[in-house]
Structures are given as C-alpha cells and as structure tokens.
Description:
The structure holds two protein chains of two kinds. Chain A is of the alpha/beta class. Chain A has 15 helices and 18 strands. In chain A, the strands form four sheets. Chain A has a six-stranded mixed sheet. In chain A, strands 11-12-10-9-13 form a five-stranded mixed sheet. A four-stranded antiparallel sheet of chain A has the order 2-8-7-4, with no helix packed on it. In chain A, a hairpin with a 7-residue loop joins strand 14 and strand 15. The longest helix of chain A has about 60 residues, at about 435-495. The radius of gyration of chain A is 30 Å and the shape is globular. By secondary structure, chain B is mostly helical. Chain B has a domain at about 15-175 and about 210-215. Chain B is about 60% helix and about 0% strand. Chains A and B meet through helix 6, strand 17, helix 10, helix 11 and helix 13 of A and helix 1 and helix 17 of B.
Amino acid sequence: MIRFSLSALKSPGTLFSIRGGVHPETRKFLSAGAAIEAMPLPALIRVPLQQHIGAPAAPLVKQGDTVLKGQLIGRARGPVSANLHAPTSGKVIAVGHFPAPHPSGLPVATITLRPDGEDRWGPRLPRLRPEDAAPEEIAARVAEAGIVGMGGATFPAAVKLNLRGKYPLHTLILNAAECEPYLTCDDRLLREHAEEVADGAGIMARALGVARIIVVVESNKPEAASAMRRHNLGMGHPIEVKVVPTQYPMGSEKHLVKAVTGQETPARALTAELGIVVHNAATAHAVHVAVRYGEPLISRVVTVSGRGIARPANVRALIGTPVADLIAHCGGLSGEPEKLLLGGPMMGQPVANLRVPIVKGTNGVLALSPSETHRSAAMPCIRCGTCVQACPCGLTPFELNARIQADDLEGAAEVGLLDCVSCGCCSFICPSNIALVQGFNFAKGRLAEKQARKHQQEETKRLAAARSAREAAIAEAKRAAMAKRKAEMAAKKTREAAEAATQPGGEVVK
Amino acid sequence: MRLPQVASGPHFHSMFNVPRTMVAVMVCLAPATGFGLYQFGWPAMLLFAVTLAAALVFEVLSLVIAGRPVLPFATDGSALLTGWLVAMTLPPWAPWWVGVLGAFIAIVIGKQVFGGLGQNLFNPAMVARAMLLIALPVPMTQWVAPMGLKDGPGLADALRITFGHAPGYDTMSSASVLGQVQSQLDAGRPMPEILGGMASLHDQFFGLMAGSLGETSALLLLIGGLCLVLLRIIQFVTPLAVLGTIFALSGAAWLIDPDHFVPPLFHLTSGATMLCAFFIATDYVTAPVTTAGRAIYGAGIGALIWVIRVWGSFPEGVAFAVLLMNAVTPLIDTYVRPRIFGRTRSGKPLPLAASAGEKP
C-alpha cells in the first residue's frame, strides 16, 4: 500500500517511506484552521495520580489543603514516575478515587481540586540557563516539572533525557508527524510556537549531548514545516526539517526513525541503541517552558474535533479539565456521537463518562458521528491479504487472528504477535471488519498474564527447592552433630567400659 | 473464545468491505461480459441469467441447511460473482442444465462444503469448469461462431436452444481457437499454415471469434482488470506474473521452433488467459496473501497453462493450472512471509552493528 504522490517527486526525501501502513481520511481540516485558544477555568479539576507509564505519584496534599498554581501535589515514586503539580490555585476537596480516563472507567487515585478563580501562581521552579547548565541539571529540571511524552505514550521525558551515558547518542528526532487523523494540536503548536519548540529541542539536545536535531512533519502540514524552517536554530544547534509522506502509522517511533534515517531498529531494542532519541514536539515545548520559565507541566494543547463537535478547535487546557467542560467550550455535541474518544481515532481510547479529566497524554477529544466510523458487521476472513499488505511490522494479521481464535497463543507468538505495535492498520483496512488488533491486544494481555503466572510458578518452585535444600543442609548439620556426639559418647563408653551395666548412650539420644 | 468488549482502536474504518469489493469486481467484469452477451446473442443471455440465479439459489439453500445467517452472506455478492465466473467459462449456447450444474458444483461442492465464504481451498468457478469439462465433454466443447445480437437467433429460438431438448436452430458450430490449433497440430500441419486459416490476432484481441463468454474480448478483460488494479482491489503482481510467464515461455519456445509452437501474443489473447490473469488468479480466497507469494503463484499458473496447452490432452489448461496452484497456496503462504520489522528473515532480531554501521 505504498502510495507515491506526484508532489513527492519534487522533494525526493519524502519518497522514503515505511512498509505497509494505511491512508485513512485525515479530516484534519476540521480543526487545522483554528488557532490555539485558552479556555475559562473549569469548576472542578481532577488530577489522577497516574498519568504516565510507571509508578503512580504519591499525593502530597490532603482534603482541605489550599494549593497555589504550579505547586507540587504529587511526588514521583521510583525511577520511572512523574511529578504532579496543581494546574491552578484552589482548594483540594478530595484525595480519593474517581473513574479513570480509560475505557474501563475503573476508579483510580485522583486529587480533586476546586479552583478559587484567582489562578495564583505559587513559587516557580528556579530558572535555569540551559546554555550554562549541565546536562544532568536540565534532565533533573525536566523531571521536577513532571514532563512526560506528550504524544500519547506518556513515558517520563527525563528518563529518556538521561540515556546519554548509556548509549552513544548522535541525533534527536522531534516527532511532529501527527499521523493520527483529526489531531491538529502539534500542527498548531508548530505553526504558532515554532520558536519555543525549537528552543525546547535545543535544550533537549544539550541534555542528550547530541548535535543533530531533526523535526519530522508529515507532508499534509506544510505550514508547520515552513514555520519550523523559519526557526531552524535551537540553542545554536541547526534544526533540520524533514517532511515525510502522510501515512499512518508514520509517528510510531521505530517507523519514524526508519523513514527519516533509513535505519531499522532491531526487534526488542531501543532507538537509542542506534544513537537516536525520539521526543514529541509538544514535549519540547513543555521542556522550553519548564527550563526557561520554571513552569511545570500543567496544561497542554488538546484538539477537540469530529463531526459530533459543534465547533472543532484546538484548546490549551489545564491538565485535569473534565472532558465535558472541553466539549462545552467547543459548542457542545451536535447530536448523539457514535464514539467519544480520548486521543486519535486509530489508537485512542473510548470513554463512556464525560466527567473524566484529560491527562498529560491526551492529545485529542473526538466525538465521531456514524458517518465517520463506517462500522459494519464482521464477516468471515476472505484471505484478501489486505492486512498483510497494510501491516507496518511485516506480520500476517489474518493468521495471527486465526491462531488466537483457536486459543493457540504460543503459536501466535511464534508468528510475531509480540512484534505487533497495535497500530490498528489491519482492523482499519479489513474488508470483513474483523476485530484483528483488538484480538491481538487481548492475546498480548493473556500471554503476559500467562508468562507472569509461569514466572511465579518457577519462582515458587525455585523457592521451594531452596527451602528443601536449606532444610536438608540443616538436617545434615544436625546429623553430623549427632554423629559427633555419638562418637564422643562411644569414646566415653569405652573409657568407662568398666561400669558398662547402664543403657548405651546412642539409644538415649535417639 | 469471545472478545469481552471491543474497546481498543481503531474506532473508524476504511470504506471498503466485502460486498463493495465483490460489486467492484463485477462492475469491472461487466464490459467484457456485455460484449460477449452481445456477440453470442439471446441464448448466451439466458444461460448467463440461469447460471447466476442458480448460484444464488444454491447459496441460499446451503446457508439454510448449514444454519448460517442467510441475509448477510447471500447479499455479500460472492455467490453472484462465482456464478458469473462459471457462466463466463461455459460455451454460450450450452443448455440450461449445464449452467445449473456448474453453479451447483461451484457453490455447493466448491465453496459451501468447505465452510462457505473464505474457507474454500480451490477456486469454485474453476472447480465447476474442470468437473464439467471432464463429465460433459460434448456440451462443454460445442462452440458457436459469434453472430451478434441482430443476426443471431431471436428470443423464441433462444429459449428453444437453451431450454429445449433438441437444437432447433441451425448453429454455425466451430471449434475454439486453441482446440483448432491443437487438432491441426496433431494432424501434423506446420504452425504458420494453421495460423493462416484462423481468426487473426486482431479478432482475438477484440473478441470476434468462437469461444466461451469469457474467452472473447481480451481487450475488454484487460481494461476491466486494469480498473481493478487502479481500484487497489487486486495487486498488479498476479496478472503480471501470469501473463509474463506465459509470454516468456511461449516466446522462448516459439523462437526456438516456430513451426511447432504458437506465437506468444496468440497465447495471451486466446482462451481464458486474460480472464484468468485478472479475475481468476486474483481470487482472494484461493491465492497466497503476500506479494512475493502471489508472484510465485501467478508464475506457476502461467507456466502450467502453457504446459497444458502445449503438451496436455486438453486444448485449454486454465482451470487445471489454477486448481493445481490452489493446492500449493497453503505451502506458499507457509514459506513466503513478509519480513517482520526489526527482524531478519529467519526471525532473529536485526544485528545492531550492521544497522548502526551506516551512520548518517
């Protein structure tokens, strides 16, 4: 499914592409023209303690506390975790559980804040001159500011900035591909804040100790690309702007590296092992704000779009703003949406509850009408091979699905289940509407569970074996001690052979 | 196993689904079919209609017997397309029961017995064609010269030809081009002489000679097939492999011994070559799924077609070639796989040093 557009011939660099992929209707025009706007303070703000990959943060406030904007309210726990800050000033009205912005809707630990309307800043983080600061200092500041990967994966950014010592890094790739349809938040951010993004990229390059910075933009965002070309210096490092073909899943980290540099990251390896670190463009902006102004990550740009939204827009919203408030700010829902999503339509998550908050990784709030989803009933697989052509990972989804349906998880793993990146191209393109990637996600979960159980069993066995070995050793020691004593007794007996009328000592011990 | 709830993405879908694909194939098949129907007149139309109707009836009956939902499967267009392809392989003036029998073999034996849509190992239309050819050698090889709708029999005569017991119309029967070549070669005549007394390449290309419905206009089949390629319903690699292999093999043989071998263009325009390359060999269910696999499969079909035509006992070998390669499809799918991203062909992770070596 590689498609060459005529316009790509003008710039041969854009001919480099990835295997497979799909070309969904991007429908970015719905919100691409809307400048980033601020929104009024919501009535309530809910900050989940886990908005990132890793351990949830430990709450530092309790019910009734007054907090100031930017105040640390949750501290990172462990090496892979992230700090949380109050998005505005107000009163903590609850530290408890609230439905997660996740399809399960399960309650998660959440700090609920009632804004006082004054939006008063507390003391900011001390300013840092990145030009003079040591790389470790920059990474530490990024960690302090609670910055996570803002493309959706929400991996703590500081952990990735600290890779410097471990791998020979040479390139920072700033991912502004934004291959998910509908989403325009990175596009707008680049158009309106290219200078800040460039500076953030420069700061990150300094922290990583790399000299080469590449900003990657898909070909359907020419304004963003030209804005970045105007601001092509980040802290003295020249910034290359690379336009890649509009193709989903171009923004997938390893595929992006392949499209930009031609290097393929080995399976189960990190791109850092090739010397390349990929960060999202919005993350770079957050780094700029945190390092230059000492402001932690308390807001982000969210695209509110879809035919179900009256006025699609790009909104700079505080972390913790309820989805309902965002939608209301954008004119509300026009009719009953078929799907309400956080994130893009390919990999986003459906939410049932409008009161859930947006988090650091939420790049979109989409309300899709039935005319956009094209859903129809599932049919049997006709072996058309479209999924095989579309899979960017070189898998055979129809075969994986057949094995999973037959409950042969190991067989599925053999043909590459664990190499699946869950991009959803197969399910998107399948003419029979088979829930392929959904089944793969399910199977991966089952497999992980199985492996965990196996690991546990092995661990139990190992511990049991260790214990019996220990017990055997103790018994052996006892026996040895006994034998020694017996021998002593026997020696004593022979010494006292004269008075041999009494019972033998050995039997007494027995 | 049932999925508890479809929660993960993607939350929208491409425009394509099974019925749309089937309809697109039928639309691309329509020009050649329409021209064939015009050429062979009313009897061909009646046979075509009977075969399609029978295919649909057998599909519904099979679904009822199998206890499967009738409406979604009967309306997916696959039965209609199968019936259509069966009709394309029949002699246009064959009696109605040949069409019904063909539809029965294709739908019931070729498809539903295997488990319905997507489950069959062999191409249903080719199963029907091969079985009919072996079981009914006489009705399956009675070709008529194309007369056009106006000069041919009227509706009343056509009803008698298709549904009557005895032929009530003076047919201008003639052998198909490939049959003619084979019988004359067997009689020991040199190739240039045989070709001289036959329909020209030009006629074959435009479809002005005797043959089954689908063997007529190579041009219209080519156009329809290219439309399928442009619509991204089929990959160009399959027809390219089929046609390329036939062309290469027959060309080589012809260059070596032009007295005994048919020239390559003749192979490409005669018989069911075009129909096979664009509409039969590209059948999703029975072909391999990878591009490389399809190339191998197409080349195999092309080679077998040529071998059967040259050395086989039947003048035309498309059906047998396709069925033989259908049997190889699972093998091809097992061994020809795409390379997994980040892994070598053998499934090991890519060596880090090799890829890091080409530092930009």
